[in-house]
Amino acid sequence: MADDLTRQHERLLEEGRSLLRDNQAGGRFRRMRARPIGRGSAEVRQKNLMTRIKLIGGSLLAIVFASMLFGIALDGIGFTGLMVAFCAIVACTFLFSNFPKVRIPKRSDLNTGDVRHMVARTELWLENQRHALPPPAVTLVDQIGVQLDALGVQLESIEPLHPAAVETRKLVGETLPGMIDAYRKIPAHLRQEQRIGATPDQQLVESLGKISGEIDHITRQLADGALDDLAIRTRYLDYRYGEPEALSQAPHQALPAPDPLAQLNRLPERDKQEF
Question: Which of 3, 10, 85, 261 is deepest in the core (most CB within 10 A)?
């Protein structure tokens, strides 16, 4: 009983220190919501913002246009009409400033569609999971978001059945979200208890590190083809036009002046008679 109270006391102290560090850094929730983890999720949020702006602008124009029509038809809308129009403007601005919200993909929707869009959906889903993860795991999630951006660009130029695309779909669409789901099902007070030599927090961080390494490995494999192609083209240019140093050091020889007699001989008979 005393050992249990001691472990509980130590856990509470560690959670208090972690909360204090988070607050000194600006707040854990604020940091997690400050920016997207990748370009794919950022594009989704940017599109949502542009949709809201368009809805606000369209609703304001519609209210102004409707007020003008009523004013012409009724020979003025009066103070009451102005207040109604003002309230409508405020209501539309408030409504479309908050709606439509960014749709967070469900776990079952991640591994659908092409690989490029699956990567963007996974980034958006991961952003919504950060608040339930320990700080070291949040750092790894941010790192994975950057890696997924680079991988998503390379996946645009390969076939869906390419081994790298299949492996990415399994790793990013199934393994990664499945692991985070399993972690979130563990009660918070049990995540600091050791089990099979490590706590759930430590196991999560270790697994995320392995996933990050595997994403980097796939990215490098896909980049090998582009690097080889660039090297081949560079060697061809060196063979065809010479080394850049040799070209810069070679003396510039002036082209010989054209021979007037040779040029005259190339002219047709009709043009020669003019000379």
Answer: 85
